[in-house]
């Protein structure tokens, strides 16, 4: 039915999509942790390698918030058809997460006691971004 609003099973489809993504990330993390012989990281945890890493991560977060606000201010003045794609919230957050993971991988390579910890971080980041690209290009795995 094509009416006003979302379909009646929209919440179920989004729930299934989120469940699939979380399970894929969990199993990928579990397999790669064993492969690289690294203790698995917890989801949604902030484990900094050292104080320098903590400071750099905070700088990235502050710059992300500033970029979101500036991007909103600039795009709000423009016609919706002419918005800058690099000032859209999804692209700012996408690049922020990528930069944060690159910094984490660098800090793990340079300062972590486990020489394979950075490999796990880089492989998780690559998997996550490939997963995002696949989900977007397949219209959310055919759910939309």
TrEMBL record:
Signal peptide: none
InterPro entries documented for this protein: DUF4181
Keywords (A to Z) from UniProt: Membrane, Transmembrane, Transmembrane helix
Pfam families according to UniProt: DUF4181 (PF13789)
Transmembrane segments: 12-32, 59-77, 83-104, 125-143
Protein name (Swiss-Prot/TrEMBL): DUF4181 domain-containing protein
Species whose genome carries this gene: Ornithinibacillus halophilus
């Amino acid at each position: 039915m094509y009416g006003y609003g979302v379909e009646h099973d929209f919440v179920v489809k989004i729930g299934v999509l989120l469940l699939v993504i979380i399970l894929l990330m969990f199993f990928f993390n579990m397999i790669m942790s064993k492969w690289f012989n690294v203790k698995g990281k917890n989801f949604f945890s902030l484990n900094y390698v050292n104080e320098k890493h903590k400071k750099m991560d905070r700088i990235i977060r502050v710059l992300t918030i500033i970029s979101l606000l500036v991007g909103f201010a600039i795009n709000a003045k423009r016609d919706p058809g002419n918005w800058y794609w690099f000032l859209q919230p999804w692209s700012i957050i996408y690049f922020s997460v990528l930069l944060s993971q690159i910094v984490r991988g660098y800090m793990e390579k340079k300062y972590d006691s486990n020489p394979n910890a950075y490999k796990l971080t880089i492989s998780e980041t690559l998997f996550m971004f490939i997963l995002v690209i696949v989900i977007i290009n397949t219209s959310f795995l055919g759910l939309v």
